[in-house]
Amino acid sequence: MKSIVFHGVRVWLLDSVTEGGPELRGELVITGSHGGLSAGRYAAAYQPRLVAFNDAGIGKDEAGVAGLRLLEERGVAAVAVSSASARIGEAADTWVSGVISRVNAPAAALGLKPGTSLQEAIERLIADGETSGGVA
Question: Residue 136 class from Cβ within 10 Å (0-12 exposed, 13-18 middle, 19+ buried)?
């Protein structure tokens, strides 16, 4: 598992959400193209603060939409992320060039909107104090 510190807050970059575990509780998680219902189930079990999936697996197929809904039912904010290059496959690509394409209700309540750069959206959440996961 890899994480970065962005404006003093840890952001987990996972090629698959299944790489994580209990340490993801309350954290910001960016994951690559292994989205979908099973990833939604896994992420919901650990209650991260926000999950951003590559929309190759979320939002373009029924399993992906079901994954977003499952997270919504658990109160976990989740967004689908796409890229102008349509080449996102890894969490690092999702993080660097991702644009939010779909949000669930908890993410919308945080002010996240389609068309926003993922990095800009997370930077705004941090500035508004909407995240936990600060690092020492």
Answer: exposed
136 inside domain:
no
Domain assignment present for 135:
no
Round to whole Å and give the CA distance between 16 and 30. Answer: 9
Q: Which helix (H) or strand (E) holds 39?
A: helix 37-46
Q: Which domain range does residue 106 map to?
A: 2-116
Question: Does 121 reside within a domain?
Answer: no
Strands 50-54 and 28-31, by their bridges, are parallel
Q: What is the pTM of this model?
A: 0.81
pLDDT in tens, 91-104: 777 788 888 888 99
